[in-house]
Amino acid sequence: MKGKGIDMKNKALIVILILVVISLAVLLGMKFFYNNETEHVNENEDVETDLENDEEAVKTGIDIWPGDSRSVAVVIDNVGEAKPQTGINDAAIVYEITVEGGLTRLLAVFKDVDKEKTIGPVRSARPVFIDYVLENDSIFVHFGYSARAQRDIANLKINNVNGLVTDSAFWRTSEKKAPHNVLTNMSKVLEYAQKKEYRTTTSQRSVLNYVVDEVEIEDGQIANTVNIPYTSSNKVSFKYNQETKRYERYVNGKLEKDWTSGEARTTKNIIVTFAHNYTTDEDPGYGRQEIENIGNLKGYYITNGQVMEIVCSKTSRNSKTVYKDKNGKEIQVNDGNTYIQIVPIDTKVTFE
């Protein structure tokens, strides 16, 4: 009887050991399965995260108008003695505006460009330039001014860098004749702006409604060549390059090139605004021009070989111009630099 009791106890221990082994095996199996499933889930999460990162990398925002840095608007000389100019290809927006004697000047608006690149030649300010300095919230760079422009800059407290006041932001080149030989760069401009404690950031968005996705004008007219005759001696034209999807700028049939780099002057977008201009009695004998740019003005938006009619709406001197389609909706503008050609109201702009 005693031997039997021992055998029963041994059998019971063996059964318990077997159950323990089975339980451990089950637990180990479940752990392996769970870990394996978790690894697959984490792998899928990593794939999804990578895909999301790739999508974000594709669309990183507007390249032509980045960040919150304040723009800088520079008056560029535009007569034969000043050409070829330099640095204009780096401008986000270039306004061409009639001044006096049938001449035009450029207002080039720069934002986050190479600080050491040469820009110019720089020339004197006119009142209408101030309107576009204000709507772009720019620091204004010029070398001199007309009488009214001088008053407006003072009265409106425009943050400006004027070559008649400081020579630290400018230099002259011996390769061009005065007064068409004044040059600058962003490094010198911003150094002077900091000394004057000008604000160098902005919360304002761009005047133009830039979008990341490519804008293709629907039902537009062909515009592979754009002809804009300001005068008989200043015939501006743009010719579309199908490969680069950009326009090359010509004046009087000659391709314009950058003085420093030799690169062709090009643009992604062109806006034409028709505005009445007239001669004022300011600075008698100079034929100073005034431009009526407040209100709803007719115009064109041109990009990618197509053109559409638009309305250019400006409600006050310091308000942003809003460029609208025929239905009154603000147009979308391709991410890239833009020439805004403000032309006399009777200018015969044509497209080919």
Descriptive report:
With 352 residues, the chain is of the alpha+beta class. Helices cover 24% and strands 30% of the residues. The protein is globular, with a radius of gyration of 33 Å.
Main sheet, how many strands, which sense, barrel? 12 strands, mixed
Class by helix and strand content? Answer: alpha+beta
> In CATH terms, what is the architecture of the largest domain?
3-Layer(bba) Sandwich
The name of the CATH topology of the largest domain is: YerB-like fold
Rg from Cα: 33 Å
Global outline: globular
Please indicate the count of domains.
2
Terminal Cα separation, in Å? 118 Å
Strand content: 25-35%
In helices, the fraction of residues equals 10-25%
Q: Could you give a short description of this structure?
A:
Helix content is 24%, strand content 30%. With 352 residues, it is of the alpha+beta class.
For this entry, give a set of tags.
22 strands, alpha+beta, 2 domains, YerB-like fold, 6-stranded antiparallel beta sheet, 4 helices, 12-stranded mixed beta sheet, single chain, 30% strand, 352 residues
Topology record:
Elements: H1 2-58, E1 72-76, E2 93-98, E3 104-110, H2 127-135, E4 139-142, H3 147-155, E5 160-162, E6 171-172, E7 182-183, H4 186-195, E8 210-211, E9 221-222, E10 225-231, E11 234-241, E12 246-251, E13 254-255, E14 266-267, E15 269-279, E16 289-292, E17 295-303, E18 306-314, E19 322-324, E20 333-334, E21 338-344, E22 350-351
